């Protein structure tokens, strides 16, 4: 597994200081904040969530396509032997892809659904950060719909992604007794 330093080095190597890495860092920092609150009641791999969150968008070094950047990140990190983090790159897209969707996008022919609490936290927090600023799930999804209105494959699946994100967020809020949007928003 990647250490924080290795994850940072990998992102700088491929992103070369590009602006979008501010989003990656913001998502990593916010994910760890939620992770620490959850860790009071359950075991959670905080080191993994930080690195996986930092690298979830590494595929943007190749493309900013809302679907394919996840595929590129998956290919890169798999090739480098970081299977767990690679899985997050693919499964953060639309909060999970079924096998047919994965195949259509050029991924291996199986489901890429976030399975563990760690794998689910990264896409949830990703949907709570617009660029490098905290937002709400509703605002983030409206913005995604607007920005990607020409991409029907993506937009047609946003309702499903929003519902999965919302259900997961309510589930962990039930567990911790706090608003996840508020944890992400407060410094
Ligand atoms: Fe992404």
List strands and helices in order, with pairings.
Layout lengths: L3 H12 L5 H18 L7 H10 L12 H12 L3 H9 L7 H6 L12 H10 L2 E2 L2 E2 L2 H11 L4 H4 L2 H19 L3 H6 L2
Antiparallel strand pairs: 1-2
Helix pairs in contact: 1-3, 2-3, 2-7, 3-5, 3-7, 4-5, 8-10
Describe the structure.
This protein is mostly helical. The protein has one domain: Hypothetical protein af1432 (Orthogonal Bundle). It contains eleven helices and two strands, in the order H-H-H-H-H-H-H-E-E-H-H-H-H. It has helices at 4-15, 21-38, 46-55, 68-79, 83-91, 99-104, 117-126, 137-147, 152-155, 158-176, 180-185, and strands at residues 129-130, 133-134. Strands 1-2 form a two-stranded antiparallel ribbon. A hairpin with a 2-residue loop joins strand 1 (129-130) and strand 2 (133-134). Helix 2 (21-38) crosses helix 7 and helix 3 packs across helix 7 (117-126). It is globular. The protein starts with a helix and ends with a helix. The model has no long low-confidence stretch (mean pLDDT 97). Fe (ii) ion binds at residues 56-57, 69, 92, 126.
């Amino acid at each position: 597994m990647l250490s924080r330093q290795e994850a940072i080095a990998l992102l700088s190597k491929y992103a070369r200081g590009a602006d979008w890495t501010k989003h990656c860092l913001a998502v990593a920092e916010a994910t760890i904040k939620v992770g620490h609150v959850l860790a009071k009641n359950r075991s959670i791999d905080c080191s993994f969530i930080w690195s996986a969150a930092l690298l979830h968008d590494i595929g943007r070094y190749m493309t900013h396509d809302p679907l394919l950047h996840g595929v590129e990140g998956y290919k890169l990190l798999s090739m480098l032997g970081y299977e767990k983090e690679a899985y997050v790159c693919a499964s953060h897209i639309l909060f999970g892809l079924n096998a047919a969707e994965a195949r259509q996008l050029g991924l291996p022919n199986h489901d890429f659904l976030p399975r563990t609490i760690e794998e689910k936290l990264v896409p949830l927090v990703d949907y709570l950060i617009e660029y490098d600023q905290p937002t709400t799930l509703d605002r983030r999804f409206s913005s995604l719909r607007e920005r990607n209105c020409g991409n029907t494959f993506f937009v047609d699946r946003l309702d499903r992604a929003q519902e999965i994100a919302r259900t997961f967020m309510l589930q962990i809020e039930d567990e911790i007794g706090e608003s996840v949007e508020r944890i992400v928003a407060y410094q």
